[in-house]
Amino acid sequence: MEPVPVPSRGGRPRDPQIDRAVLDATLAVLDDVGYVALTVEEVARRAGTTKPAIYRRFANRPRLVLAALAVRLGTARAPDTGCTLCDLHEGITIFVTLFDRIRPDVLAPLLADCASVTALRETFMTTLFTPPRAAVAEMVDRATARGDLRADVDRELVLDMLGALVHYRALFGHAATGSADVERAVEALLRGVATDYPALVAHSRRMAGTAPTHPSHP
C-alpha cells in the first residue's frame, strides 16, 4: 500500500486558478470603479470565490491591488538596439503605455493607503516604481558605456528625470503622456548630457535607414 500523503502544516496548497481569477477580477473592478470604490466583496463575487479565500492570499486591499497591478505591468523590458535616442524613447514609451492602462484615480489613493506602513510602501515602490527605473538605468548605463553620455553626469538625477516621465502624470492623473511628450523630454535631457547630441540623432537616422526615426529631430 502506498503511504497516505500527510498535509503540510501550512494547509492545502494554493490553487493557482483561484489566484489568477482573483487578480483578473481585481483588475476588472479597478477598471470599472477605481481604487477607492473597490471592495473585496465585489472582487470575490467576480472571481467566483469568497472573501476568506482572498484574505488567505492577500492580507489587505492594498496588497491585493498591488499584486493585480504587478500582473498588468508584466515583465516589460527596455530595448537594446545600440541607439541611445531610440532606446530611451521607445523604452520609456513602453512603460508609459502600460501605466496608461491604469485608471488615473488608482495610484494616488493607493499610495496614500500604503504610505504610513513601511512594508506596504516598499511593496508599492518595488511593484510600480522600481521596474521602469531599473529599465531606464540599463539604457543609461549602456549609453554611458558606449560613450554617448558624459561620464560626469549625475546618474541618479538622470534616472529621476527620465523616470518621472512614466510616473508623474500617472500618479497625479492630470494629463496623459503621449509619445511626442516622451520624445521632447528625452531630446531636451540628452542635449544636456550627451557627449555629441547631433551624432546621436544621425545614428538614430542610420538605424532607421533614410527616414528619421523621430520626425522632430533637427
Concise structural overview:
Helix content is 66%, strand content 0%. The protein is mainly alpha-helical and 218 residues long.
Structural notes for this entry:
Residues 16-76 form the HTH tetR-type domain. This is TetR family transcriptional regulator. Residues 39-58 bind DNA. Pfam families: TetR_C_11, TetR_N. Keywords: DNA-binding, Transcription, Transcription regulation. The chain is mainly alpha-helical. It has 2 domains: 16-70, Orthogonal Bundle (Arc Repressor Mutant, subunit A), CATH 1.10.10.60; 76-207, Tetracycline Repressor, domain 2, CATH 1.10.357. It contains 10 helices and no strands. Helix 1 packs across helix 2 (40-47). The longest helix has 28 residues, at 118-145. The model is unreliable at 1-10 and 210-218 (pLDDT under 50).
Low-confidence stretches: 1-10, 210-218
Tally the helices. 10
CATH architecture of the largest domain: Orthogonal Bundle
Order of helices and strands: HHHHHHHHHH
How would you characterize the largest beta sheet? none
> In the residues, how many domains can be counted?
2
How many β-strand runs?
Answer: 0
InterPro entries: Homeodomain-like_sf, HTH-type_TetR-like_transc_reg, HTH_TetR, Tet_transcr_reg_TetR-rel_C_sf, TetR_C
Protein name: TetR family transcriptional regulator
DNA-binding region: 39-58
Keywords: DNA-binding, Transcription, Transcription regulation
